[in-house]
């Protein structure tokens, strides 16, 4: 049955269910009843109509849920308008878009989409408001989570409200622009604008739902490769704006933007009396900047004087300059950026402004954080960011990632030899063991793709797209050779399945059977299998034979054809292996992506995250997705995922207390989490400002030399002797509802002077890999704060564990703390060879509250609950409202001038330093929030701080 008919039936059923759920609970029997009734409206259903599959599809959509958005808002100069005007607006564009999306995303997501787009629209200005106004905002989503659906919904509502010119800045490549054009045609325009001579109107998407000719916005661009606002089109375009909504979907490219600026000048409706500059008055503009952190941000140096004031003569980078010049040509405008990696936008100075271009693109009006639906498959699901409260760590086994180590002669980042080594140049010829052939890891990845596609078919997903991504080099010449080698491998597989095995050659069929039994069969989700049938090799072998025939290798070269080929009828019956480079990096959606082979070691943290095309929605086949990558890339994804979550948590807490975009920008620019991302995105020698206020720094990497272990033990002894007799042994704290927290065998000192802490940090040695917990930088920060009369008072906790090993520190006896060596990225032997010991998380969350009274603890818990957000893009599963305060809240309620030092004597019998008796002293410092925090200079200087052009 065609997808179009399936969508119609599903949409009709869900439309009825949406009304029904207002008065009654939706049950499986009720869904079946409604479906049977809707089917009577389609008397000629095809023979392949699968009633049960349709029921399962509808039930799946109904079960999807989505959390609440969070926002930071600055309403200075803004006039509230939407609530008053909403009853009088005919929401025709939105209504038909809503009808289109309901069967695709589900009942709760469409309700949330309605509410979120209302929120964003309300932060823009009323398009009927006279006079000059300028609103600038940023919407932060997750990678591949549905940002396009959100801004398409916003566009429909903006058009309904009266915005007349809508410009969508859609990346820098033709394929992404074409993909965005198609989505705008389907969701807003209602027609395919790429018509040949003599061809009539062709309705698509919303145009098939409501074909009213009055709901046909004008559009200048189309989905073709040359469908941008190019010079030829610009020279012949002469529509005056102000009538029907006028839409442009364009690349962020100099010539295209210049063409648009010239047209706006031609269409001007007023001239400034003082400057003589032409501009458009009374015709409101909405600019949607997709991937707003890419190309749109000013990267030119020298934007400010030494005193921090903006240089009005500064010359911004080209794309940033042209976008700002475009905005200055309108009296009434709104700019909304969309991105999943927003930190470049937040680094924009809120006061940056030049004479010719006006204000920079800082989101001064609002920043809104989008939650992901419950079926989203994102970085947290793949790489994780959470650690259990007992500070246990994950094992080295991984559900989705398969590590690659045969792509180069070694795993060193400077390696230049091998198939596609980390360092290679344009013209490199990939050779494995001297042969022009792919390495075994790529052969396994191709087989994984075949198996994943076969499993999907066995589950009834026979009309869905299936794609594999191969991303190993940014050089087109290398991509071409890799494509040739993959094609040769595919042809060999097809030849064996057609003619049988050749004597003395490997049996791919046997390899597939073995791979399935070892890597797929044990982890298959029974919930995805129809009728509860257990899949084994025999049950999928016929499907494997079909998939082998469907295999096709394609090179993604950035043209619109990359996208148009996915849209063609019948493309779902091809199993596509897509080979590409940079043009796969941003925004591009590959339908049905199950298998990725990834070698690109980008030094830009946002680029690295954006390269993750595997994030998105994998309904019914998440368990067969596989990511082949090197251990160092996997480690960086894990670190970046964690750092990004830290900054999102800061956002949640700031939103809960009514913060503004400016305050968040100031906070993020000096957040220690950026030490993780800066090592990837900054060049060597780059200085950044760093403030530890409101954060925790904990040691998780330790030197294993006996000298350093003894030195740090001695530093702790000296500190505890200076601190004197403990204020408490076995500290206990009362908590709300009669709960008591107890730190058995531990010791607590209250009101220790800052001098003792500084002396300790001067003596304590941290590992060079301790990015956030560097004793030198921590000491510098505390010294600066003490000079300002801050952080003069400290509490110290010496925490005991449950180990049989005993320690004596400062004359006090206690049990050591056990922390298992983390093997996820470096094995025990590798840690021994490197002379370091690595753990996952040091601090148990409750330990940060050891200095808090019951009242302060209750305040922190209340703040945590207010900041709590339900978002599966950031959590592995749906969780409950917190019953304990988080670290951010505890640091926020702590007295501003008081710090907390946590000391942990780690058991040296950990697999890495076995045989020792001296505890490995670990420490964490929890800093209170401060209104007068000083930023210290941190200089990036390490192996990751290299220009990407060197790779």
Notable characteristics:
alpha/beta; 6-stranded parallel beta sheet; disordered C terminus; 951 residues; 29 helices; globular
What's the overall geometry?
Answer: globular
If strands are numbered along the chain, what order do they take across the biggest sheet?
1-12-2-9-8-3-5-4
Strand content: 15-25%
User: Mean pLDDT, rounded to whole units?
Assistant: 86
Number of helices: 29
Low-confidence stretches: 386-397, 677-686, 940-951
Give the proportion of residues in helices: 25-40%
Biggest sheet: strands, sense, closure? Answer: 8 strands, mixed
Give the termini distance in whole angstroms. Answer: 48 Å
Radius of gyration: 30 Å
Give me the secondary-structure category: alpha/beta
Number of DSSP-assigned strands: 34
Q: How do the helices and strands line up, and which of them pair or pack?
A:
Elements lengths: L2 H18 L7 H12 L11 H13 L6 E4 L8 H4 L6 H14 L1 H17 L9 E8 L6 H15 L3 E6 L3 H16 L16 H4 L8 E2 L11 H6 L9 E5 L3 H13 L3 E2 L6 E2 L5 E6 L27 H11 L3 E8 L3 H4 L6 E2 L3 E2 L6 E4 L6 E2 L1 H5 L17 E3 L36 H19 L7 E6 L4 H24 L8 H13 L16 H14 E5 L5 H7 L7 E6 L12 E6 L6 H6 L5 E2 L8 E4 L1 H26 L4 H8 L5 H8 L5 E4 L5 E3 L2 E3 L2 H18 L4 E2 L2 E4 L3 E4 L4 E7 H10 L11 H13 L5 E6 L7 E4 L2 E4 L12 H7 L1 E3 L15 H14 L19 H7 L4 E9 L13 E7 L9 E4 L12
Parallel strand pairs: 2-9, 2-12, 3-5, 3-8, 4-5, 8-9, 14-20, 15-17, 15-18, 16-17, 18-20, 28-32
Antiparallel strand pairs: 1-12, 6-7, 10-11, 13-19, 21-34, 22-33, 23-31, 24-27, 25-26, 27-28, 29-30, 32-33
